[in-house]
Amino acid sequence: MKTFIAFVLLLFTCCLVAQTPPAPQPAQPPVNPEIKQAQQLNSDGKQDEALAILTKLLAGDPKNYDANLTAGMVLDLKGDYDKARKYLMQAIEVAPPDRRLQALRTMAVSYAFTCSLPQVRDYETQVVESQLAAAKNLDAAATYNELARIDLECGNTDSAAEWYQAGYTTAHRVPGLPEADLDLWEFRYQSAKARIAARKGKKVEADADLGFAKVTLDKGKLPPDQQRFYPYLAGYVALYTGDYKTAIAQLQKADQKDPFVLALLAQAYEKSGNNADAMKLYRQILTINSHNPTNAFARPLARRKLGMGS
Fold first, then answer.
1. Considering 94, 114, 144, which residue would you say is the last residue of a domain?
2. Of the residues 43, 165, 204, 205, which has the fewest C-beta atoms closer than 10 A?
3. What confidence tens digit (pLDDT) does each residue in 236-267 have?
4. Is residue 195 domain-resident?
5. 254 with 261: CB under 8 angstroms?
6. Which of 175, 202, 222 is the last residue of a domain?
7. Domain for residue 116, yes or no?
8. pTM score, two decimals?
9. 264 in a domain, yes or no?
10. Which residue range(s) make up the domain with 72?
11. What are all long-range contacts of 94-101, with beta carbons under 8 Å and residues at least 24 apart?
């Protein structure tokens, strides 16, 4: 009888455990509506209004991570880089552990606006080291590629080649990488080699690498969205190897919402003597208010071309 009662109690306890809901996850803190408003104003090109909100918010809460990060990005878009980096440094110092890499990468992009390459490398390599320590090889490979692209667009082709190689090698250290991912990294690496060769004026080499990239793309194993990168790549190679007609034709088929594509197309128009359309594109670039490497390359160029400094 005692054994039967013990069994019933055990069964009852198990049922209670099974029916007990899992412990609720800690709620994420809601985004401050003032910060959301400032971010929207920034996206709308109203940087001064965004800063007014952020400055008031930071006066009462100087360690607010989102406010510092957003203020830094807004100031970069205004071209006030030194002041932007003061806010971004504060964001790094107060960043929650799960957002520290975001702050470091944002600072790297800030330095990309001025092609301050030693500082870009400092912050990007901090990100890479953290990603490798966490065994996130694909994330680290992507960061290597971002660093390589910044070096390339700032004119340091040899260093860019080294970082692209590091990204390619790091991605291939992932065991059991699917064939589609292998092809994706192959396409990225061949694209990088084509752009580096083009920047060095090596047309034959650049065209060959462009052809290899197209072969990989045509295998059909890559995600469909990768197809859209080919006109950009072909236009880039044509621009830097002096074929401006082809550059224009290809870049017109590329992503017209990408400020860097617009900057390349504007330069191709200028090289062809079409300054009117080039200026239209430079003005269009300044309506794009993203804080990323593509705009870090395009926006300062557009500001210079329009006589607004850098």
1. 94
2. 204
3. 999 999 999 999 999 999 999 999 999 999 99
4. no
5. yes
6. 175
7. yes
8. 0.88
9. yes
10. 35-94
11. 94/63, 94/64, 94/65, 94/68, 95/65, 96/65, 99/65, 100/130, 101/127, 101/130, 101/131
